[in-house]
Each structure stands twice: as structure tokens, then as C-alpha cells.
UniProtKB/TrEMBL annotation:
Residues that span the membrane, as ranges: none
Gene3D superfamilies reported in the protein's UniProt record: CBS-domain (3.10.580.10)
Domain CBS positions: 348-410
Name the record gives this protein: CBS domain containing protein
GO CC terms, sorted: cytoplasm; nucleus
Region described as Disordered: spans on this chain: 164-183
Positions with biased composition (Low complexity): 164-182
Length: 427
């Protein structure tokens, strides 16, 4: 385990992070689309309203108000329901509480002086966001043994002996670990993407791990969700994966081997035309959905459905009427159309429809750079000597587990992969 995780604290990563503006579960789906599109990440935390406005709220009360994290795939899946397609105006004005998947454990409030290694352990266990207070009187310390200045640690230090080596608390300085705050306190959210961005800036301290292949590190996760390209795309909404929130669109080739041709994910649908994407999800096959097919589909089969012109326009907070009619276009949901039939040729998948992939021999540093440059939550892993044969997926949790692995465990994983190959995955 690199010492950089021991000598840095969470507060070091929050510099420049914007203040959290709570998004309430009573807000409409239309407002959620705007909020997700304007967010710096592909999802927004959803909260219950405060029971006492202006009152005192402790950490436990705040944690209980947190509902879950809403992303674009959740919204598109909701709008693709038959009842929502029949009355899109009603669906867009539905409360977010009907859409968001409850997951109270995906967010945790931590002190700014929490060790980074402790934060990483939380994220490895499923925490996706860390809520960090910005309004406390605290100065970040990025130096050796800065962990000793955590308020909780200082309380356990014996200061009665009179030794000059003992640390003492300043009575005029508020503790950063205070558990009760007023409504004026400001918070920011720290995501796993922020942690990966910090890690990639400290690659030298992690050597030689960043240059090791993901297969030798045991980072590849073979347990991924997939759907056949010929299957209806709407099948994916029956059981949406949560981490990563992505479904591979595959074609079976030889035996149980699968070739990835695209993906349906929250990151791909981020900032898309949600109504158009929902209609396509409900009416097209998975292969057609990820490619775009309007060049080869009769215009008579495409409906004239209305799209709110204010969605995505932050200047009109309350939204307007459903007045502008538009036809479905794969470009409007963020895909670049190619050939209208999903066949063997890889060249037909272009632009944003192409899945983000890496080889089993790719280095950990290269995979992290891919994720950050594409603002993706995951990278699909394909075999080294084959044409897009899917092996697994690498997500945030897999990377965090690798960089915090003990040296002995890393050496054992490396020896087990020497001269071996990654097992084929049966989906």
C-alpha cells in the first residue's frame, strides 16, 4: 500500500469542488434531466426535504435524508415504460421519488481530516460519494503524519502528563469532527472519479503498480451485464446494474464467446435527448439502439413526439410546455449512426456508439487515463489477440481495490498470472 494514501486526507481532494446544492425527491423528472445534464458527473444525489428548515441537523439526520443517486439511465428506463410513452407530459412532471433507486449506503459523510486510505476503504465497500463539510475552520495538510491532526485522534491523546511532546487542542478552534451543524453549513461531494484523478497524479508513488497489466493485477471483473444485439433493448430496464451502471451489447460468435458492439449505460446517455432515447429503447433492438438506424428506417415508423424545448436550458428553471415536435434521431440521443445492420464489421460503429475498450495487457495507468479522458465509469476488457471478444469490465471499485492491495497480495496475483491467460467469460 502506497504511503501517499496514509499521508493525505480527504480535505486535500476537495479544493475547488463546488458547493453541494441538494436536489429534492419532490422535484420533477424534467428538472432532474436539467440537473443531470448540468452536473459535473453523470449522476446527482437525491435528498428528502428537511423536516425543520433552519434547525439544527446532525450527521445521522442528514444521512437519513439521503435517498440515492439518480443517473440518465434511470431516467431513460423510466420514460421507456409503456404508461410513460402514452403520456409523456405526465411522465416528465412525475416526482423523482418514482424514478430514483433507493441506496442510502452509496453516500457517506466524512470529516475533512479523514485519512484518504479510510475513504478508499469506504468506496471499495460500495460508497460512491463522500459528503465533506466545507464550512469548518480547517486547513488541509498534505504532509507526513498529517493524520495526527484529525480531531477524533486528538481526543485520545493524553495531555495531562505535561510532556512537551504532547499535542494540545486550541479551545478557540472548532473541531472539524463536530457532529451537529446548522443549516448554513456548506458541503461538497467527493466522487470516485475525483479519487482516480488524484491517484493518476501520484503514479510515481505507486510504482511499479501503474505499469502492470490489469490481468496481472486481477483487476478485470468477469461479472458484467450483457444483452444480445438482436434482443429488444427494453429488456435492459428489467434489471439495471448499479456498479458500473452499464450493459454490454454483444453478439455471440464462437461457442460461448461474445463480441462487444456497444453499450447502454448512464455515461453514454449523459446529456442525451431523454425522450428520444426512451422511445428508441422501447421500440428498437439493442443493436439498433447503440448504432442509430434512422438512415434505414422508414419515416412512417418514427413517431412525431413532442420534446420540451426547455430541457437542458438552465435559464428556464420551471420548464415550459411541450410545444416543439421532433422525430427520433440517433444523433439526438448521442450516437453517431453507421451501417443500419449490426453485422461483423467493426468499422460501422463510430463516434459515441463505440464502446470504450482496453486489452487484457493494458496497464492500469492507461485504463485510468481512458476513464478520465472519456468521463466514463468503466472500461470493457477484450482479449489481446482477438477482435473485440469480451472478457470483462474494469470499474472504479476494481481500480481502488488494486491500488490499495498489500504488496504480498499483489505479488501473489502477479505470479498466478505469469504465463497464463484470462479465462473466457460466459455471460
Amino acid at each position: 500500500m502506497a504511503s501517499v494514501f496514509l499521508y493525505h486526507v480527504v480535505g486535500d481532494l476537495t479544493v475547488g469542488k463546488p458547493e453541494l446544492v441538494e436536489f429534492c425527491e419532490t422535484e420533477t423528472v424534467e428538472a432532474a434531466i436539467r440537473a443531470v445534464g448540468e452536473s459535473t458527473e453523470a449522476g446527482i444525489p437525491v435528498w428528502k426535504k428537511r423536516s425543520l428548515v433552519g434547525g439544527i441537523e446532525n450527521n445521522e439526520m442528514r444521512q437519513q435524508r439521503f435517498v440515492g443517486i439518480l443517473n440518465s439511465l434511470d431516467i431513460v428506463a423510466f420514460l421507456a415504460r409503456s404508461e410513460c410513452l402514452e403520456d409523456q407530459e405526465k411522465a416528465m412532471r412525475s416526482p423523482v421519488s418514482e424514478v430514483v433507486v433507493p441506496s442510502n449506503s452509496s453516500l457517506r459523510q466524512v470529516d475533512p481530516a479523514t485519512r484518504l486510505i479510510d475513504a478508499l476503504e469506504m468506496m471499495k465497500q460500495g460508497v460512491k460519494r463522500l459528503l465533506v463539510r466545507k464550512s469548518v475552520v480547517w486547513k488541509g495538510m498534505s504532509k507526513r503524519f498529517s493524520i495526527l491532526y484529525n480531531g477524533k485522534w486528538l481526543k485520545n491523546i493524553d495531555t495531562s502528563g505535561g510532556s512537551s511532546n504532547n499535542l494540545s487542542l486550541n479551545p478557540n478552534r472548532p473541531s472539524s469532527s463536530s457532529t451537529t451543524t446548522s443549516s448554513r453549513d456548506k458541503f461538497c461531494c467527493l466522487s470516485r472519479e475525483d479519487v482516480i484523478r488524484f491517484i493518476i497524479g501520484c503514479l510515481g508513488a505507486l510504482a511499479p503498480l501503474p505499469l502492470s497489466s490489469i490481468s496481472s493485477l486481477g483487476v478485470i471483473n468477469p461479472n458484467y451485464y450483457s444483452v444480445e444485439a438482436s434482443s429488444p433493448a427494453v429488456e435492459v430496464i428489467q434489471n439495471l446494474p448499479r456498479d458500473p451502471c452499464a450493459i454490454a451489447v454483444v453478439e455471440c460468435i464462437h461457442g460461448h464467446q461474445c463480441k462487444i458492439i456497444g453499450e447502454i449505460s448512464a455515461s453514454k446517455l449523459w446529456k442525451c435527448d431523454h425522450l428520444a432515447a426512451a422511445w428508441a429503447l422501447a421500440n428498437f433492438s439493442a443493436g439498433q439502439f447503440v448504432m442509430g438506424v434512422e438512415d434505414n428506417v422508414s419515416s412512417r415508423s418514427l413517431p412525431d413526439f413532442s420534446v420540451n424545448p426547455t430541457v437542458g436550458n438552465s435559464s428556464q428553471a420551471n420548464g415550459g410546455g411541450f410545444t416543439r415536435a421532433r422525430k427520433f434521431s440517433s444523433r439526438s440521443i448521442g450516437f453517431s449512426p453507421g451501417n443500419s445492420s449490426f453485422g461483423i464489421s467493426r468499422s460501422m460503429y463510430r463516434g459515441r456508439s463505440a464502446p470504450l475498450t482496453c486489452k487484457v495487457t493494458s496497464s492500469l495507468a492507461a485504463v485510468m487515463a481512458q476513464m478520465l479522458s472519456h468521463r466514463a465509469t468503466h472500461v470493457w476488457v477484450i482479449e489481446d489477440e482477438s477482435d473485440d471478444v469480451l472478457v470483462g469490465v474494469v470499474g472504479y471499485a476494481d481500480i481502488l481495490a488494486a491500488v490499495t492491495k498489500q504488496p504480498a497480495a499483489f505479488a501473489a496475483a502477479n505470479r498466478s498470472c505469469e504465463g497464463g491467460v484470462v479465462n473466457e467469460v460466459q455471460t
